[in-house]
Amino acid sequence: MKSLELFTGAGGLALGTHLAGFDHVGLLEWNHDACNTLRLNAAANALPGISHWQVEEADIKTVDFARFRGVELVAGGVPCQPFSIGGKHKGMDDSRDMFPDFVRAIRTLQPRAFIVENVKGLLRQSFRNYFSYIVLQLTHPDVGRKPKETWEDHLKRLEDFHTRGRFKGLNYNVVFRLLNAADFGVPQTRERVFIVGFRSDVGVDWHFPEPTHSEEALLRAQFTTGDYWTRHGIRKPKNLRTPGAGVLARAASEEMFPAAPWKTVRDAVSDLPKPSDSREHPQISNHRVNPGARAYVGHTGSFIDWPSKTLKAGVHGVPGGENMIAFSDGSVRYLTVREAARVQTFPDRWRFEGAWSEAMRQLGNAVPVELAGVVAKSVAEKLQSQRSSSTPPPAAEHTPTATQN
After folding, report:
1. Is the pLDDT of residue 88 over 50?
2. Which structural domain, as residue segments, surrounds residue 79?
């Protein structure tokens, strides 16, 4: 199944959709170092079947999507800075808001399905109306924004069209959910909004995959059975903070929480060789220590025996110290790029171009590969099951109007 990746970054979502069975006809990204990362790995065929990837370094606003007609999936992690809690919170007034261009791609290409990923901040109260606007645009991409029409007036017109209930032309059945990557086997408590849509004529019923891992199961393995420490061949640290009795009582019931334990930073990195602070490791790429890490109030790092905090695109001085490991003896150090890649579930053969700060920025912006794969695989299975019965999209009821970006 052919697919197009927008806002590809370092390739987290692209790898997840690739592993789910989609074949990318194009990967669009504007950042030079991220494009170099993609090209380097495609040339090296870092994963089987990606050597033909066509990486295009371009401003998405200038792209004519018509040349990609025929794709069945459009996917993208739309830039999150306008809606990120760590950003300037300008949202729909931010020039980096690229949702209108994602909608333009859907309008032009009419794929059978799409996947969008973004930050939890998109669901904040201050962006609630704009989030409704995003969902309605994706539901009815043919009802385009008119020249000089404000987004608020366009929202009203979309609401009128949606409540009228006569949906001829191009329409999508759209659902969204806030997912925690840790619940799907990623060693990181990273909460992200996923928006998934299926073209209405495809006629599938679909729901988000069920979680496979749980916090309670990890607590049970650490404080009730001790399996976690046995598996790693270490003793439970004496200074490990014990959860409350009520939490432990709930966690003790395997019948109540049958899922696998959340994965921790130790689970992700313990089999890596000790990194050097002077040179790259000869066998493991991107595995060199960046010196200077220190802990202080509000900047304490990610505890090694718990899932990592959410990696962010910032580097030094990131609030909370998300780019540091905090060890049980109280010491801290920065994650190597390879360790951060493990936390984001990139394969070890995936190399990152650019200095440590640029590579960490790419990783902080990425979608965890395994989380992307879980969602994309579920979408792919539905599309494959309905492929033979799917019909071409009906003719549009409206003449699409130009979208203002």
Report:
1. no
2. 2-211+367-389
